[in-house]
Amino acid sequence: MAIDQSEARKVAHLARIAVTGEALPALAAELNGILHFMQQLNEVDVEGIEPMTGVEPMRLKRRPDVVTDGDMQPAILANAPDAREGFFAVPKVVE
């Protein structure tokens, strides 16, 4: 299936892309290249091959689930530009 300039104009319109008349031949050629590549992919025999999520199987790194006491409020509030009574202070937004 080949895409001509009128088809490329329709695709650009549907994709809400502004394409000038002189850019239509290049767009049509690019879309034809994409379709050709898709046809090549359809020719590959993938019978019995499991889908992959990555190139090599890897387990995600996990941190140990350890309960901590926290108690870092003074250290955290030290980074705040404005803190009052143990909380972050922010400017009033709603009147």
Itemize the secondary structure elements and their pairings.
Layout: H1 5-14, H2 24-42, H3 73-77, E1 83-84, E2 87-88
Antiparallel strand pairs: 1-2
Helix pairs in contact: 1-2
The major β-sheet equals: 2 strands, antiparallel
Measured between the Cα atoms of the first and last residue, the distance is 62 Å
Radius of gyration computed on alpha carbons? 29 Å
Estimate what percentage of residues fall within beta strands: under 5%
Describe the fold and architecture.
By secondary structure, the chain is mostly helical. The chain has a domain of 38 residues. It has three helices and two strands. A two-stranded antiparallel sheet has the order 1-2. α1 crosses α2. The radius of gyration is 29 Å and the shape is flat. The model has no long low-confidence stretch (mean pLDDT 89). This is Aspartyl/glutamyl-tRNA(Asn/Gln) amidotransferase subunit C. It comes from Paracoccus contaminans. Keywords: ATP-binding, Ligase, Nucleotide-binding, Protein biosynthesis, Transferase. InterPro entries: Asp/Glu-ADT_sf_sub_c (IPR036113), GatC (IPR003837). Its EC number is 6.3.5.-.
